[in-house]
Known about the structure:
- It comes from Dechloromonas aromatica (strain RCB).
- GO terms for molecular function: nickel cation binding; zinc ion binding.
- InterPro entries: Hydgase_Ni_incorp_HypA/HybF_CS (IPR020538), HypA/HybF (IPR000688).
- Involved in the maturation of [NiFe] hydrogenases. Required for nickel insertion into the metal center of the hydrogenase.
- This is Hydrogenase maturation factor HypA.
- The protein has a single domain (about 5-110), classed as 2-Layer Sandwich (hypothetical protein PF0899 fold).
- The chain has a three-stranded mixed β-sheet with strand order 2-1-6, covered by helices on one side. The protein has a three-stranded antiparallel β-sheet with strand order 4-3-5, with no helix packed on it.
- It is built from two helices and six strands.
- Strand 1 (about 25-35), helix 2 (about 40-50) and strand 2 form a beta-alpha-beta unit.
- The longest helix is centred in the N-terminal third of the chain and has 18 residues, at about 5-20.
- The chain has helices spanning about 5-20, 40-50; strands spanning about 25-35, 60-65, 70-75, 80, 95-100, 105-110.
- By secondary structure, it is of the alpha+beta class.
Amino acid sequence: MHEMSLAEGVLQLVEDTARRESASRVKLVVLEIGRLSSVEPEAIKFCFEAVTHGSIAQGAALEIIAVPGAGWCMQCAETVPMTELYGACPTCGSHQVQPTGGTEMRVKEIEIE
């Protein structure tokens, strides 16, 4: 489960930000997770709750925004929606599709007090 190490990385970023801003606690963390990122939102929620126990982020709400997958189809020469990383183009059926979006995971927002 790589979500545990990802949650630990998010916590490190959150703690660094909270420390830099002299915050007393973290109220909310917003993550953007691409549908093609191989990150399971429910697993990251579980892991985030586990790794934040005893930290400045304990009890913080975790909001996840799903980023749709997109890719460039070399046959169609256009951007197409993607639902799986190595899937076929929904327009022409070609497998020559290069992902262009939805593979990322990033911290979009941290609310502190």
